[in-house]
Specification:
7-stranded mixed beta sheet
Length: 467
C-alpha cells in the first residue's frame, strides 16, 4: 500500500469531500482524483499485479530470484573493465572486491541504451540514464507529461508475483521524487525511479530500512512480529471493506467521468484485497532474529549495507523473487567523506581527465563495488532449499545507465551479471557483447523465468546469448 497521506478538502455543492469519503480514517487508502471531490493532486491506488505465468524455479525446484541494482554516474572505464577475455580474465581495480565470488559473476561489456542518448532531446542525460535503465524506451521530455515504459522488473512481476507475498520489492538509498522538473526539464520522476508499472506510473521505492523491514515482517521485536502483521492485515481488510462500501454508495452520486475513475479505483482496491488474500494463503511469515532497523543511519556505508540486507532477507524468506535497489539517482552529488572524498560525486564525474579527480571518482566506484561484493558474499553463504547457495539460484544485474560520467555516454554501460540462475547461466567470465541493446539481456532474463512469449522489450533486437 502506498505511503499514507492526508489531504484537506472543502465541501462541494454535492456534499462530497475526501474527508467525508473516508469518514475520518485519514488516507489509509489513497483515493483517486474526482471532479466531484476537491483535492490538490491526483493519488492513484496502488495495485499489485497478479499473474498466472509459469512457475519460476530452477531445475532443482528452488526459487529463481531476479534483482536489479543501480549505481549512479557511470564508472571510470579504465578501472572498471577487466583484462583478458572469457574465463581467462582478471578483475581490474574497481571490481577487485568481487574476487571471492568471481566464479559466479559475468562482467558484460558492449551493452548500450541508445534511447538514453540525447539526440534531438538535447541535455538531460541523468534523467534518461535512470528512466531508460530498465525500460529501454525514449522518455518524453517534459516535467508534467510523463511517458516512459513498463520496466522489466514489473514485466517479470506480472508473471511470477503471485507466487510470493510481494509481487516485487523496490528499495532505494535515495528519497524518490515523483513531480517537478529536474535534469534539463525532464520530470524528477524519471531521475528518481528505475521501476515503472506503466508508462506514466513509477513504482516509488522505499528508502527507510525500518519501514522496509516492517513492511516485510511486521512491527515489534522478534517473537511479536507475526501477530502484529496478522493484526495489521485484519485492520487493512476492515478498512478496505469500509471504503468499498462507501465507494459503491457514491457510484450513483457522481458524474459519468468520475464513475469511470471510481471504477478504476475500485479495481485497485480489489487488487489490494487479492494481495492480502495471497499473503494469507501463502502461510506463516518468517520472523527474522535480527533487530528492526532504527531508521536511516548517519553512515552512508551502513545505510547501503542495511538496504542490501533487506533485499537479502526478502530473498531468504521468499517474500519476493524480483526486486530493484537504486543506490542513488544519476546526477547524485553526494560527498564521500567516509572514504576521504569531500567533493560531490556528480561534480567529480566531470573530471576532464585530470588524474587527481579521476582517482577520486575511482574511489567512489570502488566504494559501491565493495558494498555489492559484501551482498554477493552473503548470498553465496546463504543456503537455498536445494542445497545450493541463493546466489547460485539468482540472476542479479549491477550497473549504471551512464557509462563514462565525464562525457555522459550510454554505450558500453558498466554492467555485472551475478549468479548462475540455477545453472542456466555460465558465470565466471568477461563477455564482450559488441554493441547490443541492454534490453537483449533483459529478454533473456525473462526467458529463464519461463516467459518465452516475451520476444521484444524496449529496443531489444533479440536475446543476449553466450552468457
Amino acid at each position: 500500500m502506498s505511503r499514507n497521506r492526508r489531504e484537506n478538502a472543502t465541501l462541494r455543492p454535492t456534499g462530497l469531500s475526501r474527508r467525508h469519503f473516508l469518514r475520518g480514517l485519514g488516507a489509509c487508502i489513497a483515493v483517486p482524483t474526482l471532479a466531484s471531490l476537491t483535492t490538490s493532486r491526483a493519488l492513484a491506488a496502488e495495485a499489485a499485479a497478479a499473474a498466472t505465468g509459469q512457475l519460476a524455479t530452477t531445475a532443482t525446484g528452488a526459487p529463481l530470484r531476479t534483482a536489479f541494482v543501480y549505481f549512479p554516474n557511470g564508472a571510470i572505464p579504465a578501472s572498471f573493465w577487466p583484462t583478458g577475455e572469457g574465463k581467462q580474465f582478471e578483475l581490474n581495480a574497481t571490481l577487485k572486491p568481487l574476487e571471492k565470488t568471481k566464479s559466479l559473476i559475468q562482467v558484460l561489456k558492449g551493452l548500450d541504451h541508445q534511447n538514453a542518448i540525447g539526440g534531438k532531446d538535447g541535455a538531460g542525460d541523468h534523467a534518461r540514464a535512470n528512466g531508460t535503465f530498465l525500460t529501454g524506451v525514449r522518455l518524453t521530455k517534459s516535467a508534467a507529461n510523463l511517458h516512459a515504459g513498463v520496466s522489466i522488473d514489473q514485466v517479470i512481476a506480472r508473471e511470477i508475483g503471485h507466487l510470493t507475498r510481494f509481487p516485487s520489492l523496490e528499495l532505494s538509498c535515495d528519497f524518490a521524487r515523483k513531480s517537478g522538473a529536474c535534469d534539463a526539464g525532464y520530470s524528477c520522476a524519471y531521475q528518481y525511479n528505475i521501476s515503472w508499472s506503466s508508462a506514466t506510473t513509477p513504482m516509488s521505492p522505499e528508502a527507510n530500512p525500518r519501514l522496509a523491514f516492517e513492511r516485510l515482517f511486521g512491527t515489534g521485536s522478534h517473537g511479536q512480529r507475526i501477530a502484529n502483521l496478522q493484526r495489521r492485515q485484519q485492520e487493512q481488510r476492515s478498512i478496505l471493506d469500509f471504503v468499498l462500501e462507501d465507494a459503491r454508495a457514491m457510484n450513483d452520486r457522481v458524474g459519468t467521468q468520475d464513475r469511470h475513475k471510481l471504477d478504476e479505483y475500485l479495481t485497485g482496491i480489489r487488487e489490494i484485497e487479492t494481495r492480502i488474500e495471497r499473503a494469507e494463503h501463502l502461510g506463516r511469515v518468517e520472523d527474522p532474529s535480527m533487530e528492526t532497523p532504527a531508521g536511516i543511519p548517519n553512515s552512508y556505508e551502513e545505510y547501503v549495507q542495511l538496504m542490501y540486507d533487506m533485499l537479502l532477507l526478502a530473498f531468504q524468506t521468499d517474500s519476493t523473487r524480483v526486486a530493484t535497489l537504486m543506490l542513488a539517482h544519476d546526477g547524485s552529488n553526494r560527498p564521500f567523506g567516509e572514504i576521504g572524498v569531500a567533493e560531490g560525486h556528480h561534480d567529480l564525474s566531470h573530471h576532464q581527465n585530470k588524474p587527481e579527480t579521476v582517482a577520486k571518482v575511482a574511489k567512489i566506484d570502488l566504494f559501491y563495488a565493495r558494498q555489492f561484493a559484501r551482498f554477493l558474499e552473503k548470498l553465496q553463504a546463504a543456503k537455498d532449499v536445494d542445497g545450493n547457495s541463493i546466489l547460485h539460484n539468482s540472476q542479479i544485474v549491477y550497473g549504471s545507465g551512464n557509462a563514462d560520467g565525464n562525457r555522459h555516454t550510454h554505450t558500453d554501460l558498466p554492467i555485472v551479471l551475478a549468479g548462475a540462475a540455477g545453472a542456466a547461466l555460465t558465470p565466471g567470465r568477461f563477455v564482450n557483447a559488441r554493441s547490443k541493446p541492454a534490453t537483449n539481456l533483459f529478454v533473456g532474463m525473462a526467458h529463464r523465468l519461463g516467459m518465452r512469449d516475451l520476444q521484444h522489450f524496449g529496443d531489444s533486437t533479440g536475446v543476449l546469448t553466450d552468457i
